[in-house]
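Risk register update: the risk of archive-format incompatibility is retired. Evidence:
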Amino acid sequence: MAKKILKKPSFLSKCFSKFLVCVILLLGCLIALKSSSSLRENLYKYVFKNNFSFAKVNMVYEKLFGSSLPLSALENTAMVSSLKIEYEEKKAYKDGVELKVNDGYVIPVIKSGIVVFAGEKDGYGNTVVVQQGDGVEVWYANIKDIKVSMYDYLKGGDILGESDGDKIYLVFTKEGEILDYNKYI
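Archived output:
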């Protein structure tokens, strides 16, 4: 009796079949998105209208896999800068607070976080939005030249830039809600 020899699929054929399955799934998703306007509207609403929380993703990641940054090597180190925002007077401004500072004041970050916006905002001028680890977003506004970029990780005391004049504006939000600035400055 002759034995049948079964050939194992080669590495190349395995890769090709996986690639083919991925292409079919992608095409199926694109067809579903094209044909269903409600699905497309919901996807657009979720991606472009909602505020993405990096802090929540980081908390889930740390819960499952541990720290996302190798901070164990930094445990015995001291902060290089412990700058706090120093101001002469404060008053309510739009959704936040206007702080009177010296002309060309160097603006430090209050708490560590990720830059989620860096650019121009109506009524505020050049603005940097930092999403802190606790989920609070801080808008630092009226900056002459922004010294940071999107998705930069900043530590408390890092410098954002200089004030454009003698005022800076701060706004504190969490999950789209405006927070009382008195608790944070």
